[in-house]
Design the sequence.
């Protein structure tokens, strides 16, 4: 079982780590341009895209779990139709984002705040990067489907290729052509469409036979579409809660000034790095749990759950130790601005304990998705975000300032795992007798 977990987890970890590494490179490029406003601009612009993309990430999560269950049942037709339904929604969603980009920009920046200088640069970043949206959303669907098919290698190849191209393009456009924030955004656009082309090539190489199951009428079969949309709707609510928390975190950071915004943006990279790393095991859980759930094999499902948590505990402890011992040194990768570094060091102690507080929530997310326990996922996230993030922040921020943001983030992460642990027996394991 450990071998099966690692077979899926290692490619997923390598896939996921390219995402925060890319963000780190972007911040590095902006952090050495001589002013904190460039870091703040990328942070604010990035928040809007997190809001948009995380809002669509329900596609990857629901498709992964449903496909894995169809794989466990050996239902080839349903495996194929899940992909086609997802691609249809992705194309429609991507086009809507392009059509309404002006409205998204105006609404987003009116809510986020930030100084006029930071906001102007962030707008410039936004209007370039928005053109990557259709490709990015389509890739969520394709990667989720590959993972449900127990194939973690293809998403890794696609993600590594995208991010290497993105990093190379961004360095070239920023350092050689002086495009600053627009160069970082254009690097993303170029990389996403190259990645989509690569995904199509890989699909045709191994799964060309799936095309024979394509029937446009079957996409709109009411019973199947209703089931897909029901799971997707629950996961979408869950994703919007995550979006709300992280959007609020960055937006509220901006109200404390450009230096605080830059410092918190850098510290969030540490959180994202851990979360993307442990999501490698969460994605493996989606595929493995979904397979055993579809095959109605409760013994294997229980065994897989237990061993996934062994890995979660190990890396939760490891990252907490790494951030405790090397966190201050790691900060200097992002900027040489002493004011920003001094500000970040004030809040670093909160961040050190987040891996220990949050590892359970990531493992449970994968298990819940694999079992399509979407209602329980939705409810635990609502509880965590409202009662353990927003309420504590509004109570304590008059007294603690920026520290209240980090305290609330720690409580949010911890409460998710606790709530999921309490509900797991009924939501996941009791479904299989």
Sequence:
């Amino acid at each position: 079982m450990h071998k099966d977990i690692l077979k899926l987890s290692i490619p997923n970890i390598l896939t996921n780590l390219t995402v925060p590494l890319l963000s780190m490179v972007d911040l590095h490029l902006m952090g050495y341009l001589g002013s904190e406003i460039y870091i703040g601009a990328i942070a604010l612009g990035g928040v809007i895209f997190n809001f948009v993309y995380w809002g669509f990430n329900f596609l990857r999560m629901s498709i992964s779990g449903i496909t894995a269950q169809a794989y466990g049942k050996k239902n080839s037709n349903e495996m194929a139709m899940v992909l086609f339904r997802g691609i249809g929604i992705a194309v429609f969603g991507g086009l809507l984002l392009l059509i309404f980009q002006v409205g998204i920009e105006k609404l987003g920046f009116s809510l986020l705040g930030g100084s006029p200088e930071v906001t102007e640069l962030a707008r410039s970043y936004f209007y370039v990067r928005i053109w990557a949206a259709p490709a990015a959303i389509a890739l969520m669907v394709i990667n989720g489907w590959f993972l449900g098919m127990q194939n973690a290698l293809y998403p890794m190849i696609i993600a590594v290729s995208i991010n290497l191209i993105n990093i190379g393009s961004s360095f070239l456009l920023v350092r050689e052509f002086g495009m600053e924030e627009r160069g970082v955004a254009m690097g993303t656009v170029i990389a996403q469409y190259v990645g989509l082309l690569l995904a199509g090539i890989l699909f045709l190489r191994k799964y060309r036979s799936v095309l024979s199951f394509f029937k446009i009428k079957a996409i709109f079969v009411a019973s199947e579409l209703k089931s897909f949309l029901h799971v997707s709707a629950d996961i979408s609510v869950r994703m919007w809660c995550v979006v709300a928390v992280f959007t609020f975190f960055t937006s509220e950071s901006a109200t404390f000034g450009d230096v605080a915004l830059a410092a918190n943006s850098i510290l969030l990279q540490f959180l994202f790095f851990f979360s993307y790393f442990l999501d490698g095991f969460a994605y493996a859980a989606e595929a493995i749990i979904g397979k055993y759930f579809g095959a109605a094999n409760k013994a294997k499902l229980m065994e897989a759950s237990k061993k996934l948590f062994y890995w979660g505990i190990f890396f939760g402890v490891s990252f907490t130790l790494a951030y405790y011992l090397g966190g201050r040194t790691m900060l200097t990768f992002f900027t040489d601005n002493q004011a920003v570094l001094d500000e970040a060091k004030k809040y670093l102690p909160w961040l050190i304990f987040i891996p220990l507080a949050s590892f359970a929530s990531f493992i449970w997310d994968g298990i819940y998705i694999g079992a399509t326990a979407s209602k329980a996922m939705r409810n635990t996230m609502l509880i965590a975000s409202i009662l353990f993030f927003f309420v504590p922040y509004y109570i304590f921020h008059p007294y603690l300032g920026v520290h209240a943001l980090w305290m609330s983030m720690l409580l949010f992460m911890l409460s998710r795992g606790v709530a999921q642990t309490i509900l797991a027996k009924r939501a996941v394991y009791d479904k299989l007798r």
Observations:
- The CA atoms of residues 389 and 408 lie 5 Å apart.
- The chain is about 85% helix and 0% strand.
- The chain has a mean pLDDT of 85.
